[in-house]
Design a protein that fits this description.
single chain, alpha/beta, Rossmann fold, 2 domains, 5-stranded parallel beta sheet, 37% helix
Length: 266
């Protein structure tokens, strides 16, 4: 069975075999994605990923043979986005607020017998708190909380979508913009896009915003050629809906592979 969590009745939910069910909780965000892409980029992608995951699982005979249920929870539309709060429109929970929201979802699911939860992380800034909740919920509630990072950005097929010379594609860049265009092209205004570069990163140096020597980044660290904070990495201008379709498809395939592996051990 592959269903949306909130489409089941109470009676139907009582009849679900909880020990052999995965509840997938997609984690989105409301935050700036440059001049060209909507504030709800991550939440839009989360909703689209869930649709594609349901479709691909439903067509997968190997999954059908595993006798595992999948329930997809509503997308959590706001996350931990403090790095973007100084840009107009961005909204973030405080760390303690977001921790308790995720923990309480696990507590509620665990209270009704669910033992296996997946946080589908569609905004990278949500991951650190999701990891903390995963361990604490396992300790306190006896539920396993798996993490799946959405976005097959290391896939050769996905890398091939990046325009030549666009070396710094990152938050709000070409790939994320392309994914939104594949979902709803009318939400993107490419004519207003401006490239962004990280002001502290240097080629050949260890200091970065995510490596072994790091200064965790804030949106203001990404600037235009004129030095104005723009909050995105790379040049979004090469984005197309066709590229976005490839990225979404590959990302869903990777997520489904992860779900299949989780299903084998529950």
């Amino acid at each position: 069975m592959i269903k949306e969590y909130y489409n089941l009745t109470r009676l139907q939910m009582e009849q679900v075999g909880k020990n052999k069910t995965l509840v997938i909780v997609p984690l989105g965000a409301v935050e700036q994605h440059g001049n060209q892409a909507p504030l709800g980029t991550d939440t839009l992608i989360a909703g689209e990923m869930v649709k594609r995951i349901r479709t691909q699982l439903g067509e997968n005979n190997e999954f059908k043979n595993q006798d595992v249920n999948v329930l997809t929870f509503p997308v959590i539309p706001v996350g931990y986005s403090v790095e973007h709060q100084n840009f107009c429109g961005s909204v973030s929970f405080k760390p303690e607020t977001y921790y308790h929201i995720l923990y309480d979802i696990c507590d509620g699911l665990g209270r009704h017998g669910f033992k296996n939860i997946v946080f589908l992380i569609c905004h990278g800034g949500n991951r650190a708190l999701a990891e903390v909740v995963s361990r604490q919920a396992r300790q306190d509630l006896g539920v396993k909380v798996f993490l799946i990072a959405s976005g097959a950005f290391s896939s050769p097929r996905v890398k091939a979508t990046i325009s030549p010379g666009n070396e710094m594609d990152f938050h709000g860049g070409e790939m994320e913009t392309a994914m939104v265009m594949a979902i709803d092209e009318s939400l993107v205004d490419l004519e207003s896009s401006v490239p962004g570069n990280h002001k502290y990163t240097r080629k050949g140096k260890k200091l970065s915003f995510g490596g072994s020597v790091a200064l965790p980044w804030m949106g203001e660290d990404f600037i235009t050629e004129e030095g104005k904070p723009i909050g995105i990495g790379g040049d979004p201008s090469g984005a197309t809906a066709e590229k976005g379709e490839i990225i979404l498809d590959e990302s869903a395939k990777e997520a489904v592979q992860g779900i299949m592996e989780i299903a084998e051990i529950i």
